[in-house]
Write a structure and sequence with these properties.
2 domains; mainly alpha; globular; 0% strand; Tetracycline Repressor, domain 2
Length: 286
Amino acid sequence: MKKLGLYAGLIKIPLSLMISFSAIFGYIIFKNNFDMALFLTAAAIFSLACGGACLNNFQDRHIDRLFSRTRHRALPSGKLPPARALILSTALIILGTAILSFINDNPILPILGATAILLYNGIYTPLKSRTVLSIIPGALCGMMPPLIGWSAAGGDLFSLKIVSIMVLFGLWQLPHFWLILLKNCPEYSRASMPNMLQGLNRFQLEKIVFIWIVNFSVMLLFIPILFWGSNSAIGWIFTVTALVLIVVAFFNIFLSRDQNTYHPLFKFLNGTVFFIMLITIFERLS
């Protein structure tokens, strides 16, 4: 059982489930019903997410030794040999890509899946120890799962609706990354990892985080208008959610002045994304 726990840590099951859920979200907003293609899409994205996470653990095993939050993971602690992680990640990525290739005879799906892995493991992970601009491919990767779900359901890749969803996810990714940095900035400095706090002070980055959360919230107001019109009930839910997020962010960043509030805000921001996906799926299926 202990070994299973180590392997579960390698594939980051909670994160991989969230990524798979975002693909389900993309599928349901185009085709509001459950079918075999949806389950195959969810399974494929979960497999790819697990494979990408496992490969990321392999790639970061030396850097992870420098951070207190990661040094006890299976690879940097020496509890598992790196070769096993590499084999497992390869098998999961191949499996996920293979499943995508069988969904609705859509040849673009395995290409999108491979692109997500390339962005995350081929570009973002190697670059993050070299430049702060690594956040760009990292954010682009986070925008891919809803697009894959949408495409698997038969949606047009260039539809304004899915583009707006991708923009929303991109706007979420940036403060998500920066809140992790703010919470762990001393360790980033000791590890000599490039980060925005090398050119900005903490308060300046906090203001940038707040601005991006406001941008995310404004985009959140646009989504229900695009999908349901200006007078929909779900529009009011999105509006209240956006306003609550702004208030919570303002309090945590400007009024609390306690560095321990970064993690609660990080969780609230992620919880907001999960909530809007959940309420949207519920509305589409009702």
